Amino acid sequence: MDTASDPSPRQVALLMTRPKAAAARFVAELPAPLRAELALINAPLMQVQWLEGEVSCADYGGVIFTSANGVAAVTAAGEIPAYCVGQRTTQAAQAAGWQAQCCGTNGAELVAQLIKMRPASPLLHLHGRHTRGDIAARLSAAGLPCRGQVVYEQQLLPLGDAARQQIGAQSDVIVPLFSPRTARHFASLGLDAANLSLIAISQAVAAELQGLKYKGLQVSKKPDAASMADMVRDAAVRLTRLEGGDSAQ
Q1: Which of 27, 68, 108, 230 is least surrounded by Cβ atoms within 10 Å, i.e. has the fewest?
Q2: What pLDDT, on a 0 to 100 scale, did the predictor assign at position 211?
Q3: In this structure, how many other beta carbons lie within 10 angstroms of the beta carbon of residue 248?
Q4: SS3 for 236?
């Protein structure tokens, strides 16, 4: 699927607001016939910048990753285990050489799992400047000493004029949104939202969109990329009225 340069008003579009690499991974998970059916508008609203500074895991019993960005910020440290949120982050940590295991689909599930497991501590949570859940504080309060360290910055980006024109040219635009901060930024852009079908990865993301006018808003059944891809597929089938949905399977 190529970025739409002159989208047809009758073609359903998929607006990707994630950083380029993350957007490409998500689009690759969609069925090939669906990728051919949609006009792709790439408009990253956030970019990741890794921060300078040493990250040492030597004095910790384990490391916590809540995103693949955290994994990319540090070199695997021998036999130290990594406790991860989500299958994608877990796979990224394993590929980087960590002894990684998935401990839930969100921060709350990870905290509950670690409290139950009682792993060796102290623990180190490597995360971005903007994070949710107070993981280190909650684990420490539960008797598992944990320190958080900021290793990357999530910088918000403006929506370019070309992307605005592409969005406005479409009768229907599917917009998957993956974080509360991005959703809040998206809602502030002043778009004519009558053609937007929004898909939020969680209720926390959906809550940031309540003040925005839109054609439709759905919340993913599970807070992961696979479920979001299913929701995009179903929305495209509905909006394009594909025959029995076969061409999106």
Answers
A1: 108
A2: 80
A3: 23
A4: helix
Place of tokens 């605005």: 164
Pairs from 51-56 (Cβ < 8 Å, separation ≥ 24): 51/150, 51/151, 51/152, 51/153, 53/151, 55/126, 55/149, 55/151
Neighbouring residues of 185: CB distance < 8 A, sequence distance ≥ 6: 45, 46, 156
> Which residues make Cβ contacts (< 8 Å) with residue 172, sequence separation at least 6?
12, 13, 195, 197, 215, 239
Cα-flanking dihedrals φ and ψ of residue 130, to 5°?
-110, 110
94-103 contact pairs (CB < 8 A, 24+): 96/71, 96/72, 98/63, 98/71, 100/65
Phi, psi at residue 64, to the nearest 5°?
-110, 130
Q: Which segments in the chain show pLDDT lower than 50? A: 1-9, 242-249
**Amino acid symbol at 75:** T
Residues facing 155 on adjacent strands: 47
Burial of residue 55, with CB atoms counted within 10 A of its CB: 0-12 exposed, 13-18 middle, 19 or more buried: middle
Q: At 191, is the secondary structure helix, strand, or coil? A: coil
Residue-wise pLDDT for 108-151, tens only, equals 999 999 999 999 999 999 999 988 778 999 999 999 999 999 99
pLDDT at 156: 95
Q: What is the mean pLDDT of the chain?
A: 88
